[in-house]
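Tokens for RNase H type-1 domain-containing protein. Go.
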Amino acid sequence: MTATAGVIIRNNEGFVMGACSHPLGRKGDPTTTEAKACLHAVIFGEEMGFRDLVVEGDALTIIKKLKSDSVDRSVIGNIVSEIQRKRLSFVTLSFEYTLRKTNEAAHALATQEYNLDNPSYWIEEVPTKIEPIIANDQRRL
């Protein structure tokens, strides 16, 4: 079974600027999968041309590692280092922990399996099945 990253980029008003579903390869260690998903979120923001990015994730371990200034020598250290090197592409790049219930749209996007072989991208929209979740998230903002 394969893992998929679901990424939704919103502006400061909560409106969707872009979304992607990106295959990560075979499911393995959940921490590694979450780290890879975070990396793809940063890469997607970079490719979309954003200069300021706040990455929200529900994997507290990953968020703590990304906020730390110390060298990560864990199994995901190379992924953490790659994400931190990407800071040079942004004016500001920060990482915030969010509860799973406030991250439902990205989780739903990851589990919908739109295309397991290639990434799928949406600009200023999300797949129809995700729209009600986005609307619910916007009410929470």
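The domain at 2-128 is CATH 3.30.420.10 (Nucleotidyltransferase; domain 5).
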